[in-house]
Amino acid sequence: QVQLVESGGGLVQAGDSLRLSCAASGRTFSNYAMGWFRQAPGKEREFVSAITWRGGNTVYADSVKGRFTIARDVAKNTVSVYLQMNSLKPEDTAVYYCAAAPLDGARWWLGNGYNYWGQGTQVTVSS
Fold first, then answer.
1. What is the full per-residue pLDDT of the chain (127 aa) written as tens digits?
2. Stretch (H or E) spanning 10
3. What HEC string does 34-69 produce?
4. Number of C-alpha atoms within 13 angstroms, CB side, residue 126?
5. Which partner from 63, 105, 117, 126 sits 20 to 30 angstroms from 50, CA to CA?
């Protein structure tokens, strides 16, 4: 059974930093891209960033470029993906989701084709 479990959300002030983590298990992700999405109240889900497992190629939404950094790590049985968020702004407030997309057949760099999702972690940035 595939599981993606996010952690690291919280309440911070504008300008602070947070590091989100996603632990993925249940299958091999070597041919997958791992992504982060977010959804603010009353808004559509937004693609934030993604990284390919094998080559470490990354992509970022313009709204977070230069402030957020995505990274991955592989332990023995668990795949971990991180989102380092610096210089946080109130508009970054949202539920952040970890997701996985197969490299074949998915336009993962556009936020499309993600077929595994976590339950999300809340990030709140106060002004």
1. 899 999 999 999 999 999 999 999 898 888 999 999 999 999 999 999 999 988 889 999 999 999 999 999 876 667 899 999 999 999 999 999 999 999 998 899 999 999 999 999 999 999 9
2. strand 10-13
3. EEEEEECCCCCCEEEEEEECCCCCEEECCCCCCCEE
4. 4
5. 126
